[in-house]
User: What shape does this take?
Amino acid sequence: MSATNNNNNNESIFGKIPVAPRDPILGLTLAFKEDPSPNKINVGVGAYRTNEGKPLVLRVVRKVEQMLLDQKLDKEYIPQDGLAAFNEHSPKLLLGANSQAIKEKRVACCQTISGTGALRIATEFIKDFLPANTKVYVPEPTWGNHFKILAKVGVPYGTYRYLNKKQLTLDLDGILGDMENAQDGSVFLLHVCAHNPTGVDPTLDQWRQIAQVMKRKRHFAFFDCAYQGFASGDLDRDAASVRLFVEEFNMEVFACQSYAKNFGLYGERIGALIFVCKNQQTADAVLSQLKSIVRANYSSPPLQGARIVATTLADPQLFNLWKEDLVMMAERIKEMRQCLFDALKKRGTPGTWDHIINQIGMFSFTGLNEKQVERMIKHHHIYMTSDGRISMSGLNHSNIEPFANALDECVRNG
Assistant: This one.
């Protein structure tokens, strides 16, 4: 065989595919791991860490895992829409145990591959069943994967104003104005609580104003619920926005649930897609189509995480243990907010820092610009996203002082 033929045989038909850029968050974690500095700090990762900087497996999860192990259950496929017990209890957590929508059987629930999977299935449903070219609006800023999912599915999308970038507070006028100007019947993606990346949430009265405009304009609410119970430590308080839309305004909504953060089940990939409909007939039809979309994507969702969540939600004692774990995580994050705020005030760091303690949930939008963030990484080995977002659980009593020193230096000199 000639050398030319050998060369041709070694050429891939995919040889001209460009290398995709690193995901900003995952790439940040990789860069952190590669940094040899003993003083490095990672406040970019969106996962809870203990005061020792370690991942946490909740007490209730360990207990339920042992219970499931003792039962010697099989590992058979579960239906396309997931584990029946999970789909029974998951909507109750979000909508409330006494939800009228659940009682009237007009709620469709489909277990998904965490919140990301729910977003993907919901987006495909929107493309298939809402009028052609229906636009999905996401807040500016938002979780970066929202854009990627919408683009991959081929759904038209835009942004609506959300954050007052000077004061780092909610831009309610911008939200309402953009909703008013959008074409009637548009879809608006809303963060249920603990907005990612800003940590800035509407008050209940502001949610009511948002719902009023959306109902009048016949907009559809597409909720992303990644932090119920993890934000404030109160499951009901954190779900108030969705319940307002469903109960007070009688609106149809999609809600994408994730149990990654509030159960610590990051690797189990357990979530749900909940659709509140006007009647049972519509809910049944919606569920049939969701199952069809799932079948063509991954056929059947994972089992173990669904068993853990369903078992916990069904048992009052386990449920209370879980709530204790939630409060513990939420309170530690609140403590770190206060510690950082106090440290910056002590140093007289230029700027206003009230937003650190006024924001809620895992993330804080510090207000640092890209140049300052770059300085944090290069000069202080502190890893955070380029928009200045930090994960508060990445801070602890051991690193809060060096972190505050670095932030102070970068604000003064960055």
